[in-house]
Amino acid sequence: MAKVRLPTRAAPCAAPCGTPAHHNNSMPDALYRGRNSVSIENSHLRVTVLREGGHIAEILDKQTGVNPLWTPPWPSIEPSAYDPAAHNYGAGPDAKLLAGIMGHNLCLDVFGGPSPEEAAAGITPHGEASVALYGIEHADTRMTVRASLPLAQLHFERVIELQGRTVRIHEAVDNLSATDRPIAWTQHVSLGPPFLEKGATEFRVSATRSKVFETEFGSADYLRAGAEFEWPMAPKSGGDSVDLRVLNDVPASSAYTAHLMDPVRDDAFFLAFAPQYWLAFGYIWKRSDFPWLGMWEENCSRTGTPWNGRTLARGMEFGASPMPESRRQMIDRHRLFGVPTYRWLGARSRIELEYVALTWSAGTVPEFAPSRNSQQWRTSARRIDPRLLPVW
């Protein structure tokens, strides 16, 4: 394969005020698409995290020079700099989130919009974790990211470690309050161009029972609202069905579907394959931690600011909740297909979990995913022999 020129980095800049970062033989603070960020890397991958919002903005595969994660096609600013009088990211409650969103976004402790009372108190869609300031310590191929969430009375910590072509991620959430509470906790992973290509990008998911969002989701919806189905064939609103394993190839479309992860498997996964780069990318997690995956499709359907009819993105959003909705709606729903739609976090308690992201070279779309603890994925940059891995 020909050598690929990697994206250049901007000159280092000062970190914003907050928890100071620790540096030790690691890439210094830099601007990533105009945002204060910290990166770690090895010979296979570079991972970049934004200081405000904590988004994993980049998982760059160095062999191809491709970052599969979504970069919005509008200018990105720090959430703390957002001023509705000076910036136009739409008139909705999600404007501050849209001003700084990128790549892999954490939704905690709500997955969806706030209630009017919560919005008045300062809660933004998907929770304050999406716009908070994070303290970051990093050294070599390891990074620790922390944020205090005073409105939610939570503390969040994420440890990211590179092992070959695998990104191992450990998360912990502490309840600082004296009451048990139901929470949403979703990894809002969004993929975008150049990895994403209409009619070409393929997906594999360890999904079973599924459901289309129950009301209108976007202006170019094409799936039958509220329909239940088995992955991957989703019913269209005009009859017939569509295979969700291939990215839509129409001028404009919008959709959201919720998928229950296979209950007979300990691990759950999604895999995406970009044939133009011979590149596969995916995440693997413990199914009991995140029993749901939501699939968001935005294909040039949103014409308002900042979308402007030019956004292509596919969200692969695995978490504790199936549908993006308010906290009250989440609790009222309680269960879908007999499975809880939130998880409990005890008073002054902590929950810890781990999942992995990975890239690898592939000639065709993989039909499987390895175990989260597979040693081969930690060290190998070679194309993996499918005979060595379990089939899903």
- Fraction in beta strands: 35-45%
**Looking at the chains present, what oligomeric state does this protein adopt?**
single chain
CATH class: Mainly Beta
Question: Termini distance?
Answer: 30 Å
Largest sheet descriptor: 9 strands, mixed
Domain module tally: 1
Give the SSE order as H and E letters: EEEEEHEHEEEEEEEEEEEEEEEHEEEEH
Q: How many H/I helical runs?
A: 4
CATH-scheme architecture:
Distorted Sandwich
Structural class: mainly beta
- Order of strands across the main sheet: 1-7-8-9-10-25-19-18-12
Overall shape: globular
Total number of β-strand segments?
25
Note the main attributes of this structure.
mainly beta, 9-stranded mixed beta sheet, 4 helices, 8-stranded antiparallel beta sheet, 6% helix, Beta-galactosidase, Chain A, domain 5, 392 residues, disordered C terminus
Please, could you describe this protein's structure?
There is one protein chain. With 392 residues, the protein is mainly β. Helix content is 6%, strand content 39%. The protein has one domain (24-388): Distorted Sandwich (Beta-galactosidase, Chain A, domain 5), CATH 2.70.98. It has four helices and 25 strands. It has a nine-stranded mixed β-sheet. Strand 9 (154-163) and strand 10 (166-175) form a beta hairpin.
List the helices and strands and how they pair.
Blueprint: E1 22-24, E2 30-32, E3 35-41, E4 45-50, E5 56-61, H1 95-100, E6 104-109, H2 116-120, E7 135-139, E8 142-149, E9 154-163, E10 166-175, E11 181-191, E12 202-205, E13 207-212, E14 228-230, E15 233-235, E16 241-243, E17 253-261, E18 267-274, E19 279-286, E20 292-299, E21 312-319, H3 327-333, E22 335-336, E23 339-340, E24 343-345, E25 350-361, H4 375-379
